[in-house]
Every structure is written in C-alpha cells, then in structure tokens.
Specification:
It is built from 10 helices and 13 strands. The mean pLDDT is 96. It is globular and about 60 Å long. Helix 3 packs across helix 4 and helix 7 packs parallel to helix 8. Helix 4 links the parallel strand 4 and strand 5. Helix content is 31%, strand content 23%. By secondary structure, it is α/β, with parallel strands linked by helices. The protein has 2 domains: 168 residues, Peroxisomal Thiolase, Chain A, domain 1, CATH 3.40.47; 154 residues, Peroxisomal Thiolase, Chain A, domain 1. Bound molecules: oxa(dethia)-CoA. The site of oxa(dethia)-CoA (UT7) has 19 residues, from helix 2, helix 6 and helix 7.
C-alpha cells in the first residue's frame, strides 16, 4: 500500500444557531455595555441555541455540510473526532452521539477535550491516521454550547460576554496530488497555567462530584479567567507557534496568503497580525458576529472564508489557536 504524502481538507461546514444575542441584550442582565465589549474584544453579538439544544445537533449540521462539500457519504468515514468542552452529557462523549446521529455504527469515534486548541489537536490526530494508513476519511468537528455553561452575573461579566455557541467541521482525506494539504503543525501545552482559565467543577477531585447544594452561589461550576494574563500569553504563544511552522517549512510570514486565527479577542489577533506583518487583507475574523466558540472557531471561520472566495487553490493557509490548558498551536496548509 502506498501511503499518502499529505492529508488535505476535502470539505468544510458550519452551523450557527439562529438566535442572535447582542451586547445590549447582555447589558440588560449584567453590569456591562456595548462600548466596553466592543472596545475590549471586538464582539458585537454572538449566537445562542434555544433551550436544551446541546452541542451534538450543531455538530451534526456542520458535519453534514462538510460531507456534502467533500462529496463523501457518512458511510465512507473511518473515524469521527469531536473537539468540545461542552459535551451534551457528562459521558459518553459527543463523538458517540454524533456517530449515532450520522447513522454509521461501528465507525471509530472519540472526543478531544482540549478547549480552544481542540480543533488543531484533532486535526493533527486525523492527519497522523490518514498518513499512516489507519484511516482514509476522517470527520473532525469542533462544537460548543457555551450559553448553558456561563454565569449571567456581574462577577462573571469579563468571561460571559465573550462566548457564543456554534459548530464547525471538516472532512479530511489523502491529498490527491500529494502537494495540497497539511504541510506542518506545531502543538504545545503548559499545564502550569491550567487554573488561569478553567471551570473547576464538576470533577473527580470533588466529593461528591456535583456539589449541587452550592449552586449557583459558588463560582465552582462557572468558568474563571485571569483575562490579562491569558491575553498576553495568547499573543506571544500564537505568534511563536506560527513562526515555528514557518521555520519548519522554510517559509516566511509574507508567504501566508490567508491567516485564520482562533477567535477569542479581535485585539489578540490584531497584535499577532502586527507581529507577523499580516494585515486585514490576509487575515479573516468573525468574532464580531460569533463571539468565542472555543473548539469551533477555526472550522467555522474556514467555512465562511471559503464561501467568501478568499481562499484559492495553491494558497498557503495558516491556522493558529490558543486557550485553556494552556494549550496552543498552529498549522500550515497548502490549499
Ligand atoms: O479562548 C480562550 C482564551 N481567552 C482569551 O484569550 C481571552 C483573553 N483575555 C481578554 O480577552 C481580555 O482580558 C478581556 C476581554 C477578558 C478583558 O479585557 P481587559 O482589557 O483585560 O479588561 P480587565 O479584565 O482588566 O478589566 C478592565 C475593567 C475592570 O474594571 P476596573 O477594575 O478597571 O474598574 C473590569 O471590572 O473593565 C471591567 N470589566 C467590565 N466592564 C464592563 C470587566 N468585564 C466587563 C464587562 N463590562 N463585561
């Protein structure tokens, strides 16, 4: 068997819930305002699912769109990888639930719990399987429902205003010509800062795991973040990760035709862009409309940027992410 030289993205899809929540809507329930949110993060609005819709239905819609674009039936998939921190239920993972919804029993399925870099880590796993012949077609999905996991109270306003719900997916497979596809990836983690951005419960260090008697007064079940610390690391680490994949492949930042960064804060991306000398003409952002959808940001942004015709065959595309863990990374793809 001849193993493929490269893995390529054959199709991409996205699903954003219909319900738009503006900054003014949030100002109605918390001590915040549009000016602050827009100035500090670039966000104008985000989308929330309606009651009790989890992240798997969003994942399914994004996945079906990616399959259609790839021209592949769900039955042709060898593996499903779901990146999420907001799985539908505590266990099993979203991948089992999604595999069932796609009607592909027996297909290998697992979850990657790696927050904002979950999509890049999942893509790296898919790439390894494809290039070593362990799988031919892999579905990689990032999907999140944050609206049920954030606290609508003043003490959490610096976190809550940032997040939105959504899903993005790609189908990957062997590169037909060996040239197009993933050229290089760089993934990193630094657990020393795990508690700078985290949700502590429920978890196995607590007994009982779900301390329901302390909800909602206790901050325990809500995300906590040391914003400025995370911000500084995001700028430095994403820039480093991009420089690393450029160095690995002998490219310069000027060679990048389209930069698709994780969507945590527009100011973070502008600073990374400044450091790499990549302006708005070679970068895409959608945080203004979507907020931060964690594992879903990059595949949603990729789907939208492809639909807008901003990526052409032969382009050098760079993906980069940073988030809780801390975990981060970058990927370079020849489109
Ligand atoms: O995807 C995962 C990775 N996440 C990130 O990369 C996020 C990184 N961090 C950030 O994006 C920024 O740190 C934030 C957007 C979260 C905050 O921006 P900041 O410029 O770092 O503001 P700050 O937290 O230092 O807060 C400045 C002021 C404070 O008031 P005082 O102490 O100066 O009186 C906050 O209490 O803004 C206040 N504040 C708010 N005011 C209105 C905090 N949140 C809000 C809010 N509305 N939502």
């Amino acid at each position: 068997m001849t193993l493929p030289r490269r893995t390529t993205i054959l199709g991409a899809g996205a699903c954003l819930p219909d319900r738009v929540v503006t900054n003014d809507d949030l100002a109605g329930v918390m001590d915040t305002n549009h000016e602050w949110i827009e100035k500090r993060s670039g966000i104008h609005e985000r989308r929330y699912v309606d009651n009790h819709e989890g992240s798997v239905p969003l994942a399914e819609k994004a996945a079906r769109q990616a399959l259609e674009q790839a021209g592949i039936e769900a039955g042709d998939l060898d593996m499903v990888i779901c990146a999420t921190l907001s799985q539908d239920v505590d266990f099993p993972g979203n991948s089992s639930l999604l595999q069932e919804r796609l009607g592909i029993p027996g297909t290998m399925a697992f979850d990657v719990h790696n927050q904002c870099s979950g999509f890049l880590y999942s893509l790296a796993l898919a790439d390894s399987y494809v290039r070593t012949g362990g799988a031919r077609h892999v579905l990689v999905v990032g999907s999140e429902v944050h609206s049920s996991g954030i606290e609508f109270a003043d003490r959490s306003r610096h976190v809550t205003v940032l997040f939105g719900d959504g899903a993005g997916a790609v189908v990957v497979g062997p590169s037909p010509d060996g040239e197009r596809g993933i050229v290089a990836m760089n993934l990193c983690a630094q657990g020393a800062y795990a508690e700078k951005l985290c949700t502590l419960g429920p978890g196995s260090r607590w007994k009982p795991r779900v301390r329901s008697e302390q909800v909602p007064e206790d901050i325990f079940i809500w995300p906590q973040m040391e914003g400025k610390f995370v911000f500084r690391h995001a700028v430095t680490r994403m820039t480093e990760a991009v420089n690393e994949v450029l160095e690995q492949t002998g490219h310069q930042a000027d060679d990048i035709d389209m930069f698709l960064p994780h969507q945590a804060n527009l100011r973070i991306n502008q600073l990374v862009g400044m450091g790499l000398n990549i302006g708005e003409d070679r970068m895409a952002n959608n945080i203004e409309r979507c907020g931060n959808t964690t594992a879903a940001t990059i595949p949603i942004l990729l789907t939208e940027t492809l639909a807008a015709g901003r990526i052409k065959t032969g382009d050098l595309v760079c993906l980069a992410a940073f988030g809780a863990g801390f975990t981060w990374g970058a990927a370079l793809l020849r489109w």
